[in-house]
Structures are given as C-alpha cells and as structure tokens.
Amino acid sequence: MTIDAPMQEGLSAIQAIDLNFGWSEDKAILHSCSLEVPKGEFWMLLGANGSGKSTLLRLLAGLLQPTGGEIQISSPVGFVFQNPDHQLVMPTVGADVAFGLVQEALSTAEIHQRVEESLTAVSLGAFQRRPIYALSGGQKQRVAIAGAIARHCDVLLLDEPTALLDPDSQLELVAQVQTLVKKRGITALWVTHRLEELEYCDGAFLLEAGKVVDKGDPERLKQRLMQTEDVED
Ligand SMILES: Nc1ncnc2c1ncn2[C@@H]1O[C@H](COP(=O)(O)OP(=O)(O)O)[C@@H](O)[C@H]1O
Ligand SMILES: [Mg+2]
User: Fold this and answer.
1) Minimal CA–CA distance to 74: which of 151, 128, 161, 133?
2) What are 113-142's pLDDT values in tens digits?
3) Is 5 a residue whose pLDDT tops 60?
C-alpha cells in the first residue's frame, strides 16, 4: 500500500517498512526491506548488481506496487534514470523542462519562470534554447534534475545517475545534488556503486539480496565495502 500524503513535520521524507516484491511468486527480489531517509538529507543506496536497488527505487516512486509492506513518501517525487536519453523527450532544454509541467495548471508566465529558475539552479540558465542532442551526459542529467525542481519535487530519487558519466562530470553532478538538497530542502536518495561518491552524502544504506543490512555513516560503510572487495579480489 502506498500512502501518498504529507507526513508529519520533522519526520522522514521517505519511509519503507517491510517491503516485499517479486517478479514471480517463487522468486522474491525484496524481503522485508526497510529504510528511512530524514527530511532534507542526501542519502545513498549501495549494493551489488542484482541486489534490488532499481526495484526498490521504482517501488518508492510508485512505478511498481509492493506485494507487502508500506511506503510513505513526500510528494511530488522526481526520478532521474541512469540513461538521460530514456528520460528527455523534447528537442530543446527549455521545452523538456516545460513539458514536465503540462499537468499542472500554470500560466505561461509561471511556466517560463519555473523553467528559468530550475535551469539556473543546475547551472544551465544559458542553455534554454540548446538542442538536447548537443549536451554532454552530465548536462543531460542536470536537465532531468531541473525537471524535478521545476515541478517543486520534495523528493528526488536518482538511479545510478553517474553511471554513464566521465569522472569529472560524475563528481560535479554529485556535488550539485548535495548543494541542491541543502539549499532547497529537498530529500534525495541516490543509487551508486562508486564509493568515491559517498563522501557527499549524509548517510548510506547497504542492500544485500533485497534487504537493507546496514545503514548510517557513509565512511564506515565505505570501509566495510572496501574490505569486502579486498576479500573478493
Ligand atoms: N522487469 C523485470 N522482470 C524480471 N526480473 C527483473 C526485472 N527487472 C529486474 N529483475 C530482476 O530483479 C533483480 C533485482 O534487479 P534490480 O533491482 O535491477 O537490481 P540492481 O539495480 O541492484 O542491479 C535481478 O535479479 C533482476 O534480474
Ligand atoms: Mg539498477
């Protein structure tokens, strides 16, 4: 069951309690999976390939329905996919951000204002008329984030948004999300397998075979994962 209602002041912005999910009845992907992200914080979700990270994010976004458990999430929710080419649909930057606002009853002036403000927030204020195809991967991800900011999203879910980026754009994007979270009171959950990104977050979760098995201080989790990698090598 998804309760899509404003949560009490001062609590978490994202809460999953004992989630269960499977693509078929005999193969569970998530088992009693629980996590909680405090309002206004930037948390990361780590885990091996196939551990269920993308599935969990899609459940939180309401793109999939759990077979058991409960989700509470502040809305609106913005989602940023690994590949921005699967997300950006319009020919230019400004048109793409404006397209995300079509379901809201806004005047043309309000749409212009939201587009401008959200693109400025991701340092793409001068890019409104640029064609999407002329952007770098990192710029495309920032357009996707601007789309969420334009919709005044409370929560931003990002599924390996840096997976296709070069190392410079990768760190630029993670630093920008950290700044946006702090400046605008957004709550973000960011999926990654790149341990160097952990220093930008307030906390992290470790998912193993569909269950959160550890959470908290990112530096401690980083040490834990580096030891595991050493053992595997
Ligand atoms: N559409 C789907 N149909 C069937 N199985 C899927 C589907 N998507 C993912 N899975 C399976 O669910 C498991 C978890 O996948 P996923 O959530 O994508 O993991 P992660 O993002 O951590 O790599 C994997 O075993 C994967 O093969
Ligand atoms: Mg994934």
Assistant:
1) 151
2) 999 999 999 999 999 999 999 999 999 999
3) no
Take atom 17 of ligand 1 and give the residue whose Cα is closest.
52
Q: What is the DSSP string of 67-118?
A: SEEEEEE-SSEEEE-S-GGGT--SSBHHHHHHHTTTTS---HHHHHHHHHHH
The answer to whether the beta carbons of residues 133 and 84 sit under 8 Å apart is no
pTM for this prediction = 0.92
Q: Whose CA is nearest to atom 24 of ligand 1?
A: 50
Q: Is the confidence at residue 204, as pLDDT, over 80? A: yes
Q: Which residue, 82, 43, 52, 65, is CA-closest to 162? A: 82
Position 1 confidence tier, pLDDT thresholds 50, 70, 90: very low
**Among 133, 88, 96, 135, which residue's Cα sits nearest to residue 115?**
96
Query: What is the rounded distance in angstroms from the CA atom of residue 229 to the CA atom of residue 107?
Result: 53
The answer to whether 91 touches 132, Cβ cutoff 8 Å, is yes
pLDDT at 25: 83
Domains of the chain: 1-75+155-168+186-233 (3.40.50.300), 83-153 (no CATH)
Ligand 1 cavity residues, CB under 6 Å: 23, 29, 47, 49-55
CA 64 to ligand 1 centroid distance, Å: 12
